[in-house]
Design brief:
The protein is α/β, with parallel strands linked by helices. Helices cover 42% and strands 15% of the residues. It contains 14 helices and 11 strands. The chain has an 8-stranded parallel sheet with strand order 1-9-8-6-5-4-3-2. Helix 3 links the parallel strand 2 (39-42) and strand 3 (66-71).
Length: 313
């Protein structure tokens, strides 16, 4: 299955595993890469030396291409970038910031750069900054998200209309059918997050994985727009946020309620009531925990079957 994304990353299938905090360590990244997709280490929850360890272990576990995702909000981002260059990582996904900040630095080192956006406006800025591809992430996605609530169904064709570089669709994609739909809309590949949270190799807590499997329709909601919009499962912490809004909470009140390490507490340490549980709407159709390689192969099989079904129309 060759196209602009598989050629750009030198992978077999245009499936990119999202670099999710507290879930995307070297085990998951190497498993996805070995299965023919692009595994991504999520650096946003890692200290610099922890990132170093994950990159080195990933290199030992796979001889296939893999990437590192670096949120620009991270305070030690310069240390992360130095480690990425030192260890010869070939692909970097940047997010949550201005793509101009690091794109030239990385590309001057021969690194392929992809930037995550949630709007046409920022897709154009990323293309202007010189990135090699973008991830266009719709409102359905888990974790930190766009404020405009533009759905993937609307975002992908809107971005495709305006930019020329390859597009990776994200948000609400967990099956081969949704992969095909995104590519029909104009995407060259897909980024999959929530489905890989519910994988054997994800580093997230087993209780969180089980919560994802049990989640039904309407189990998630986007909130905290005043800080950084985040989609999460509705648990005690989520309802505490809603109560705070009802009482007229200020931005400072919300920051105090959020505190520190709330996502780690939930997704990594397993506090299902007081932790922040970031996941996408597509959790409603995720019903089991599988090996990452099985997830990739199931998506490709369903994608090809869906192609045949569509051809009948």
């Amino acid at each position: 299955m060759q196209n602009r994304i598989t050629t750009l990353f030198n992978i077999s299938y245009p499936i990119i595993q999202a670099g999710m905090v507290w879930a995307s360590g070297w085990r998951l990244a190497s498993a996805v890469s070995n299965a023919g997709g692009l595994g991504v280490i999520g650096a946003g929850s890692m200290y610099p030396e922890v990132l170093r360890e994950h990159i080195l272990k990933c290199k030992q576990a796979t001889d296939k291409p893999f990437a590192v995702n670096v949120p620009m909000l991270y305070p030690d981002i310069d240390k992360h970038m130095d480690i990425i260059v030192e260890l010869g990582v070939k692909i970097v996904f940047t997010s949550a910031g201005n793509p101009k900040t690091w794109t030239k630095f990385l590309k001057d080192k021969g690194i392929t750069v992809v930037h995550v956006v949630s709007s046409v406006k920022f897709a154009l800025k990323a293309e202007e900054a010189g990135v090699d591809a973008i991830v266009a992430e719709g409102f359905e996605a888990g974790g930190h998200n766009g404020r405009d609530e533009t759905t993937t169904l609307t975002l992908i064709p809107a971005v495709k209309e305006k930019i020329n570089i390859p597009i990776i669709a994200a948000g609400g994609i967990a099956t081969g059918k949704s992969m095909l739909a995104a590519m029909v809309l104009g995407a060259d590949g897909v980024q999959v997050g929530s489905r890989f949270v519910a994988s054997d190799e994800a580093s997230s807590h087993p209780d969180f994985k089980q919560k994802v499997v049990e989640a039904g329709e309407g189990a998630t909601k986007l909130t905290l727009k005043e800080l950084a919009p985040v989609r999460m499962l509705k648990n005690k912490f989520f309802h505490d946020i809603q109560d705070a809004y009802a009482k007229g909470a200020t931005v400072e009140d919300l920051k105090t309620l959020l505190g520190r390490a709330r996502a780690k507490r939930g997704m990594f340490e397993g506090d299902m009531e007081e932790g922040e549980l970031e996941i996408g709407q597509v959790a409603a159709i995720i019903h089991d925990i599988r090996p990452a390689a099985t997830i990739v192969q199931d998506m490709i099989t369903e994608f090809r079957e869906a192609q045949k079904e569509v051809a009948k129309f």
